[in-house]
Amino acid sequence: xxxxxxxxxxxxxxxxxxxxxxxxxxxxxxxxxxxxxxxxxxxxxxxxxxxxxxxxxxxxxxxxxxxxxxxxxxxxxxxxxxxxxxxxxxxxxxxxxxxxxxxxxxxxxxxxxxxxxxxxxxxxxxxxxxxxxxxxxxxxxxxxxxxxxxxxxxxxxxxxxxxxxxxxxxxxxxxxxxxxxxxxxxxxxxxxxxxxxxxxxxxxxxxxxxxxxxxxxxxxxxxxxxxxxxxxxxxxxxxxxxxxxxxxxxxxxxxxxxxxxxxxxxxxxxxxxxxxxxxxxxxxxxxxxxxxxxxxxxxxxxxxxxxxxxxxxxxxxxxxxxxxxxxxxxxxxxxxxxxxxxxxxxxxxxxxxxxxxxxxxxxxxxxxxxxxxxxxxxxxxxxxxxxxxxxxxxxxxxxxxxxxxxxxxxxxxxxxxxxxxxxxxxxxxxxxxxxxxxxxxxxxxxxxxxxxxxxxxxxxxxxxxxxxxxxxxxxxxxxxxxxxxxxxxxxxxxxxxxxxxxxxxxxxxxxxxxxxxxxxxxxxxxxxxxxxxxxxxxxxxxxxxxxxxxxxxxxxxxxxxxxxxxxxxxxxxxxxxxxxxxxxxxxxxxxxxxxxxxxxxxxxxxxxxxxxxxxxxxxxxxxxxxxxxxxxxxxxxxxxxxxxxxxxxxxxxxxxxxxxxxxxxxxxxxxxxxxxxxxxxxxxxxxxxxxxxxxxxxxxxxxxxxxxxxxxxxxxxxxxxxxxxxxxxxxxxxxxxxxxxxxxxxxxxxxxxxxxxxxxxxxxxxxxxxxxxxxxxxxxxxxxxxxxxxxxxxxxxxxxxxxxxxxxxxxxxxxxxxxxxxxxxxxxxxxxxxxxxxxxxxxxxxxxxxxxxxxxxxxxxxxxxxxxxxxxxxxxxxxxxxxxxxxxxxxxxxxxxxxxxxxxxxxxxxxxxxxxxxxxxxxxxxxxxxxxxxxxxxxxxxxxxxxxxxxxxxxxxxxxxxxxxxxxxxxxxxxxxxxxxxxxxxxxxxx
Length: 991
Description:
Elements: E1 2-13, E2 17-28, E3 38-40, E4 46-48, E5 56-60, H1 62-65, E6 83-87, E7 96-100, E8 114-117, E9 120-121, E10 158-164, H2 166-169, E11 181-186, E12 197-209, E13 222-223, E14 251-252, E15 260-261, E16 264-265, E17 270-271, E18 276-277, E19 292-304, E20 308-320, E21 327-340, E22 345-358, H3 371-377, H4 411-416, E23 419-438, E24 441-464, E25 467-494, E26 497-522, E27 533-538, E28 546-559, E29 563-574, E30 583-594, H5 595-598, E31 606-620, E32 631-633, E33 640-642, E34 645-646, E35 654-667, E36 672-684, E37 687-691, E38 700-704, E39 707-723, E40 727-744, E41 754-759, E42 763-767, E43 775-778, E44 790-791, E45 804-808, E46 813-823, E47 826-836, E48 839-842, H6 843-850, E49 867-869, E50 873-875, E51 881-883, E52 887-889, H7 890-897, E53 907-909, E54 912-923, H8 926-931, E55 936-950, E56 961-964, E57 967-970, E58 972-973, E59 980-990
GO cellular component, one term: cell outer membrane
Domain TonB-dependent receptor-like beta-barrel: 421-946
Signal peptide: 1-23
């Protein structure tokens, strides 16, 4: 049975002139998907998907609203082949790094996809605290996740997202499009019949910790000390039972077996007057964490007439995170006006405002001010409530309660007194004017702006481990980017040939300044003002301004709508490169062929067959001020110092050459679709720092060198196994694999590895010819030829001075699966995704194992002498091996076997599967809705990160990464904060 349906198609010629065409379409009742779908490509140009010679995956806006996230981008996880969302697990704002098709640059911070909103790129500049994640013993502070600009976007304002993969897809965006682009189109207001439409969404969600480490609560604090009777014992301070054993962070003490000892007594803030029961407090870490809450309300109003479409929205989000006294308030406002001033002039104006405020965001990493640090050092026999008063009696704001070590700060002091404040205002806006000179000739002028004004405050009270007299800091960040585009376009048909051409240019200017003020020591405790500082540091503002001018063009040819061919060209002039190399040119070519039309293969069972291929070269410049020697801000007031990097006045642009090919199929009246893509990209002339002789007065210099190759395959599958009047089942799956190989390195290394980055001085990301980006190096166990661990004569593992390959931080492959079931007014959907392979080094695992806090340290605890014999061999004088029989103290054995430098014993397989999302929605019957004077009403229950399956990762989440200053480094866990499991309810009403 066929039925005639009237469908309004919004066709766009290169995204410049939009026309409404009422098209009669013969649609069979069970036809599912329209293969002529329009997607947004580079520069905001709208194209039919079938005409593209590269991959452009579209994600509808409902994916970002059905399960609310503090960062909208996390809703993409597992839904797009080759896309990875990497967060640092550093708090509620959830800054993310989005990569497409793996990493291609040896500068590990330079592999992110470009975020584009309504055709205007977001600058994406992140500013860190200037602190490394591993800082214990060095004083100073820690990184804080203050969020990045694109996570400020209101998900309710998103109409759709198109993911452009690879250099060809993003070529027209130049340097920043080298690693692909995420094209966000926001809603513009298109109500029916010109009526005013009001939409209200209300969301409430609750967060709890997804997964806990395997803490042990069988043994308490201590290091296997014995009393005069030869028995293991515990004593907080010297007592009749023996010397003090209560100052250690280790949990190799007596077993909890009903005995009593002199312990800490909070009522006297010291040793108990009587022996107290020796018992575990099994929730002495978990009970610190609370159920987090997020409340979000969104109101939008839209209306449209024949000439004008209008939309305005307001959103308020209140988050109380799982860590006490942390969270944020976020306000979003957006306005869109789409107006046809005449038959020739079309003007679109969009504006958004975001204000994010927080009294406290958690610090992350391994240092005193981090709650992760406290969790590592908390002992099984210590009651969390002992820390509750925060301050010692009569010592308010002077001396904290931390009875077991002055290096371990009170957790409630961290939560309620060590505050990291934020007040961030983020504004974006653009005006686009399309003018039609003639039937086939038009011009687009677009100007966009991005403004960030951010104030950050850091408060540290008296008696904190790193700031005994307190500390206060203010960072004032101003960042602005201005983009102006002009694009002339011509289109025409010559018989069966269609021709479109566009040419234009872009002016981009970025201004950035950072003012940093630090008061070390406070004259009056608890008064956080710069004027209250004992010592005040004012850093000289250090700008990072940059300008880019560009010309570009696009020519598209098609024959009979079955063969399409595109050519693009772009030339950039970058202020960050020297005059001789400032100008660089790069082209691309792409083609697609609709084979099902050419060979007449269409039928009810075989609907569509497309073949596509593309080639491109894309250039990339560098950060500003890498050419001539400049001065850096100094720690001395109003002074500067010579930089330690020798800059290169002859830098050349980095170049990426990309080829890809693929096919797309559709079967069974478009109820089954399949796509496959293979690709290769080579990035050479990489801009990297290399060591130089210290006698030069510099530690490193910037050069062009090195080549990296990426190869990969992506597959997508979509199906409607069941589609009836009352019930439907839709399933989508994706799978991707990426391999990269380092083809060359700077000659200066003479075959030695190049260290791209390191964490904590023990994990090294080394580049070796023939190796891969993400390769992790460090110390490993020494093994005999048959694989047994070698021990020394002291009974401890044999040590090596050699740095060896441990594993790779990136997954072997990734996949995702989404299912949606609909029965009448009820729909249920769930999403699974995961990865196979990849390795994660865990600093927290090292420290908790060294201290006996995890279950993996229980073997040998019942040995009568408190000793342990490591399983392995010793090497004899003649080179042979014999079984190790040397017994060592249990705590000494575990402390050595899991020592921080031993990367092998603290590195784990990062494979996982997650039930990423699940949602059940009920749409109220239309009769009831109409009686309520509404057009739609629905309620949803949803969850995110509901379940996780992982082989052997012992900490919170194998999707671990480290926030180092502003960099997110995958493959290393240093003071990771817990991952949240979220459940919530959402009400959607439309009037």
